[in-house]
Amino acid sequence: MKQLRRVIGAAWLALALMATGAMAEDEKLSSDLKSTTLNQNVEVIVQYKVHPTNANHDRVVDLGGTLRSKMDYIHAGLYTVPASALKSLSDDPGVAFISPNRPLHGMLDIPAETVNDIAAVTAGYDGTGIGVAI
């Protein structure tokens, strides 16, 4: 009976380790890339653990990708890659994380309310004579 418990315990431990290993393989890949259709190209930002070199960029090219922009200031690069290459790219030990190139949107949707433009216009202010230094 004790030996059967040990065998069952060892089997559970092996299953837990395999599941942990499977999850660890995907930890470098953004969750919204995991469901990407394999026959399409995707724009991704690949973040590296250290400053990326030409060898890093060449590895992506070897997987069928294209370097679109170097982002050296954040140890990354913007690439277009086949979705089928994402797994191989995430296996690279020099890669820290891979995320999609998400669109950015402006946030100046309420500037008039922010500066209370109605009060300024009513008072006759139109910005004449105001200098702005950046």
Describe the fold and architecture.
- Residues 9-13 and 19-24 have low confidence and may be disordered.
- With 134 residues, the chain is an alpha+beta fold.
- It has helices at 2-25, 54-62, 86-90, 111-115, 117-122, and strands at 41-48, 66-71, 76-82, 95-100.
- It is built from five helices and four strands, in the order αβαββαβαα.
- The chain starts with a helix and ends in a 12-residue tail after the last helix.
- The chain is elongated and about 85 Å long.
- It is 37% helix and 20% strand.
- A four-stranded antiparallel sheet has the order 2-3-1-4.
Structure at a glance:
The chain has 134 residues and is of the alpha+beta class. It is built from five helices and four strands; from the N terminus they run H-E-H-E-E-H-E-H-H.
Q: Which descriptors would you attach to this protein?
A:
single chain; about 130 residues; alpha+beta; 4-stranded antiparallel β-sheet; about 20% strand
Helix content: 25-40%
**Strand percentage, roughly?**
15-25%
Query: What structural class should be given to the helix and strand makeup?
Result: alpha+beta
Secondary-structure element order, N to C:
HEHEEHEHH
- What spatial order of strands do you see in the largest sheet? 2-3-1-4
Coarse shape = elongated
Number of strands: 4
Distance from first to last alpha carbon: 78 Å
Radius of gyration: 25 Å
> What value does the average pLDDT take?
81
Unreliable stretches (pLDDT < 50, length at least 5) are 9-13, 19-24
Largest sheet, described in full?
A: 4 strands, antiparallel
Tally of alpha and pi helices? 5
